[in-house]
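FAQ

Q: What does a record look like?
A: Structure on top, sequence underneath. For example:
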């Protein structure tokens, strides 16, 4: 009785409404917005964090990224079991949100480094500590976000009364909108925060990019707790997934135990559970298994879809992100997906599907899913074609066994350079060779103006520049061996060809004093105009400006070529700026998002319609599990690393999905749609008739026994 009174009190609190809706749901919607902002904001910059903070290669960065996403979609199974079996939805959300927030805080801490913690290249010395903290943080985030995923939406639905079906339907639409709003804003804001410069080495500000999502997660937890007194909290009633697993396990065990041919065959292998479990439960499990069997090919779709946050982001980092006066960061291109979702969902529902229906085309849910997979494959074909065009603009860097050299003549005379008895290279005064020369041997004999050859040792897999100095000497300096990324430009160096020291500054950065015939260190600058000031020993200053694109590399020679200081600065382009615009990624995003809308929304609707009333959570867990498996496929392919070209990997994924799409279409052709409500009603009717018959038989038996007893008593009386 006490428990019933508590439940009534909770219902009374939850009846406090606003515009006909329980006030409690507003706390849940705000909580979901903040949590999704936290998750997608952190995830948007994650692959760049791996590549540029940890200095991991693209394959390892992609593998760890997809391992994390896979864990996020495996955890819902655990969260659903914990909520339904022990803690209930409310306590599960609270406890796992605390774990979630701690994980986000640890991620922000893992990215903090200062001048005492970094070497001259801006890479933290104690990298193992940073990596360990990041992995712990990501594990806690995966447990937190995955664990609450199956609970929050269902908990929101629990706040409505039976007569509030319309309001409940609207709530789920608003709930989905809050997810996309959080995703959209976070993928715009966190890349901007990441692009800020912080710390003594002015590296990308990952502590800020992770810190803001951590704050939002704390806000999400506080908001959810604030509504505690208004929630309708249901007690855990036992987990149907465990019951399903036990029933399936018993059927398999019983079938294996009675595998001898002397036992009669049964129509379905689940019928071997008849000895212990209710026939209605077995029929429901059959329906679920029928749908789960269709899920087998689906992970391949998610393997392509989730690469928007990894491979496609890395692809954007080699492109031009200038949109008029706005500079788009590579990780901000992910915002195209939620923007297109908000546009395409209503367009599909109100325009495309009704038009198809008017054309009398039988566009069944399984056909929609097949079309969605086909679109995802087309998106990767588009990505491959774009990658081919990008590769054409990229410089050819030396292989593992090669070296490349560029020659810079700092003298006021023409130079004839002969390398290893090859034809002479003619270089004018204060000029450089336009291209790098590739060498398979790590030694080169160089003769200047037919003089005695000089032996130079080269470095494998490196680009170097040979400076022919004014004092009749020559020496090698390192050059960039990879294209600048993240929308930055590497000013390779300033080379001082003057007989005295100079000092160079760019904006607020001081490149320091450069000795005669020496070069400055590398300097990284953002796209746009940069102003340089060269200070001479006599107090004169030479000022000039240069506009930079994305991903370019320059060497500036300070010479005595002219009395005009601007003419004396010789500009040498070592690596060309990115020429392919990020806008060319929009078609592949559009195709992929179209596939997502057709595939994902339809898949959830199909799963809901084909699931028994008490097993919808089982199919939801199965659907999320396909996402996890899809990410595992990506990390396996990335770790295998057998394809040398990125466009080839895109084609491989598109081809695999094409094969899977054909297999799924065949499976869908033979699938017969169920009406779970009708099947459940039939079994319940049969069960009721069986009970009625058993009661009737029991009544007749009792009546017969009473007649026999009466006859026996009459006989005894007569005697």
């Amino acid at each position: 009785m006490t428990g019933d009174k508590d439940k009534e009190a909770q219902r009374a609190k939850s009846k406090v409404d606003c515009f006909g809706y329980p006030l409690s749901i507003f706390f849940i919607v705000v909580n979901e917005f903040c949590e999704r902002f936290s998750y997608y904001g952190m995830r948007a910059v994650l692959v760049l964090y791996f590549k540029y903070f940890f200095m991991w290669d693209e394959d390892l960065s992609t593998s760890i990224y997809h391992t994390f996403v896979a864990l996020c979609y495996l955890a819902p199974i655990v969260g659903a079991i914990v909520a339904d079996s022990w803690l209930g939805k409310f306590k599960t959300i609270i406890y796992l949100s605390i774990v979630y927030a701690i994980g986000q805080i640890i991620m922000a801490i893992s990215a903090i480094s200062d001048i005492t913690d970094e070497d001259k290249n801006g890479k933290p010395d104690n990298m193992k500590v940073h990596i360990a903290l990041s992995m712990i943080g990501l594990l806690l985030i995966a447990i937190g976000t995955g664990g609450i995923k199956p609970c929050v939406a269902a908990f929101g639905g629990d706040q409505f009364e039976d007569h509030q079906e319309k309001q409940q339907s609207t709530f789920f639409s608003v709930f989905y909108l809050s997810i996309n709003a959080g995703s959209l804003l976070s993928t715009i804001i966190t890349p901007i925060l990441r692009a800020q410069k912080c710390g003594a080495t002015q590296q990308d500000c990952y502590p800020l990019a992770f810190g803001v999502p951590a704050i939002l997660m704390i806000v999400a937890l506080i908001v959810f707790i604030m509504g505690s007194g208004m929630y309708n909290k249901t007690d855990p009633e036992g987990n149907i997934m465990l019951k399903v697993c036990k029933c399936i396990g018993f059927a398999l065990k019983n079938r294996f135990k009675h595998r001898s041919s002397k036992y009669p065959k049964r129509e379905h292998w689940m019928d071997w559970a008849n000895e212990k479990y209710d026939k209605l439960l077995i029929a429901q499990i059959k329906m679920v298994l029928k749908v789960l069997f269709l899920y087998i090919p689906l992970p391949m779709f998610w393997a392509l879809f989730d690469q928007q946050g990894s491979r496609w982001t890395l692809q954007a980092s080699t492109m031009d992100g200038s949109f008029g006066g706005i500079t788009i960061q590579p990780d901000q291109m992910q915002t195209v997906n939620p923007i297109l979702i908000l546009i395409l969902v209503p367009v599909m529902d109100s325009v495309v599907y009704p038009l198809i229906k008017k054309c009398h085309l039988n566009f069944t849910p399984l056909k929609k899913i097949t079309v969605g997979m086909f679109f995802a494959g087309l998106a990767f074909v588009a990505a491959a074609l774009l990658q081919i065009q990008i590769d054409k603009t990229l410089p050819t860097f030396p292989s593992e066994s090669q070296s490349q050299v560029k020659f810079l003549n700092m003298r006021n005379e023409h130079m004839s350079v002969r390398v290893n008895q090859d034809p002479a290279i003619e270089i004018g005064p204060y000029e450089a060779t336009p291209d790098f020369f590739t060498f398979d041997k790590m030694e080169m004999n160089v003769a200047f103006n037919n003089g005695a050859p000089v032996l130079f040792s080269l470095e494998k897999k490196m680009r170097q520049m040979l400076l022919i100095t004014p004092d009749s000497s020559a020496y090698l300096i390192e050059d960039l061996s990879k294209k600048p990324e993240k929308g930055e430009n590497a000013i390779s160096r300033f080379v001082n060809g003057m007989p005295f020291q100079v000092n160079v500054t760019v904006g607020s950065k001081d490149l320091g004093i450069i000795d005669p015939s020496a070069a400055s260190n590398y300097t990284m600058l953002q796209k746009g105009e940069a102003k340089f000031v060269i200070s001479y020993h006599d107090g004169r200053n030479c000022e000039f400006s240069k506009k930079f694109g994305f991903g370019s590399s320059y060497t500036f020679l300070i010479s005595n070529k002219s009395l005009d200081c601007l003419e004396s600065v010789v500009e040498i382009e070592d690596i060309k700026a990115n020429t392919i615009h990020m806008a060319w990624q929009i078609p592949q995003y559009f195709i992929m998002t179209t596939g997502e809308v057709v595939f994902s929304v339809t898949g959830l609707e199909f799963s809901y319609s084909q699931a028994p009333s008490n097993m919808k959570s089982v199919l939801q867990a199965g659907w999320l599990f396909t996402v996890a498996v899809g990410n595992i496929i990506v990390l396996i392919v990335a770790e295998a690393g057998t394809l040398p070209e990125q466009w080839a990997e895109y084609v491989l994924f598109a081809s695999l999905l094409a094969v899977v799409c054909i297999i799924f279409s065949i499976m869908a052709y033979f699938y017969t749609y169920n009406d779970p409500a009708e099947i459940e009603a039939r079994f319940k009717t049969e069960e009721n008739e069986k009970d009625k018959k058993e009661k009737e038989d029991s009544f007749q038996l009792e009546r017969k026994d009473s007649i026999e007893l009466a006859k026996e008593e009459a006989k005894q009386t007569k005697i």
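Q: Is there anything notable about this one?
A: The first helix runs from residue 2 to 14.
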